[in-house]
Amino acid sequence: MSSQPLEPGIVTDFRDSLTYAEYLCLDALLTAQKPLSGGTDSPPRHDEMLFIIQHQTSELWMKLMIHELKAAVGFVRVDQLDACFKILARVKLIQKQLFEQWAVLETLTPSEYAAFRPVLGHSSGFQSAQYRAIEFLLGNKSAVMLDVFAHDAQTHAELIALLEAPSLYDEYLRHLARRGLPVPAECIERDWSQPHARNAGVVAVLKSVYEEPQRYWDAYEMAEKLVDVQESFQLWRFRHLKTVERIIGNKPGTGGSSGVAFLKRAIEHSFFPELIDVRTVIGTP
User: Fold this and answer.
1) Coil, strand or helix at 15
2) Chain centre to alpha carbon of residue 203
């Protein structure tokens, strides 16, 4: 049997060099899947590995999304909207990855999931600190959501910091105010731990931005990038709902939520409500 020789430049001696596996810490990453089903005389349920990897990879993508959103907040804070465009385009594509992952989990049938669901106890995606961080960065603030992290002092403190800081949308509105647009005062200096409240004055400001795109090009483009992120988030939530519905029907969630009913309510939330409201008034006197 013939063998294709390696190209002469390919390195094969790694006794004193950094390897691919070392750089990516694959020894830790690929041994972090620890199924709990099965017992001393039986192996773990085959499908539990899918469930673990699905959620671990989601957490990795969310880690990257937080990294990008924090950078975007920083750029808006110093009035560099154009630096956010690539960042938010990347966030949208990360969200696409998270959306598409549900298709893999949907191959899990109700009976397959029921075979290992008891080992989850009360653990639930509701307890994802990174998901909560993303919600806070985008403006869906709720102090009561922090109760489930009270057992972890460091995580709790990090989430409180995000809760009490302006969100990406808050910083966008503050940027518009610095440009001389009449953003209502209650939207630019307030208790940041509270969610943004829909404001007709903000709709009027955004109407000006949309009706004069050449004058406010970067603000106009930023608004559309924010709509992209919001829409992608709502699509992700919907796909999550349909996956849960397909696998457990109307059972309560493992964390104690009402399951599908809880997820349906979440879909209705709008991070940037005036960016939708403004579409109704564009083109009107």
Assistant:
1) coil
2) 26
- Residue 266 has what pLDDT? 87
Structure tokens at 218: 């970067």
Instruction: Give the SS3 label for residue 92.
Output: helix
Tokens of 142: 């709720």
Task: Kindly state the helix (H) or strand (E) to which residue 108 belongs, with its residue range.
Answer: none
Rounded Cα distance, 203 and 265, in Å? 24
Report whether pLDDT(11) > 90. Answer: no
For the stretch 267-277, pLDDT in tens is 888 999 999 99
Give the count of alpha carbons within 13 A of 104, CB side only: 16
Q: Which of 93, 83, 89, 106 minimizes the C-alpha distance to 240?
A: 106
Give the SS3 label for residue 120.
Answer: helix
What residues form DSSP beta bridges with 42?
39
Whether 100 contacts 92, CB under 8 Å: no
Q: In 3D, which of 222, 230, 221, 262 has the Cα closest to residue 95? A: 230
pLDDT over 70 percentage in the chain: 99
pLDDT at 9 over 60: yes
User: Which is nearest to 128 in space by CA: 158, 157, 103, 149?
Assistant: 149
State the angle between helix axes of 217-248 and 200-211 in degrees (0 to 180), rounded to the nearest 10. 120
The average confidence (pLDDT) of the chain is 95
Give yes or no for residue 2 having a pLDDT over 80.
Answer: no
Q: What is the pLDDT of residue 258?
A: 86
User: Which of 99, 101, 97, 94 is closest to 71 using CA atoms?
Assistant: 94
Instruction: Provide the b/e sequence for 191-203 (b: ≥16 CB within 10 Å).
Output: ebeeebeebeebb
What are the tokens at 195?
């969610």
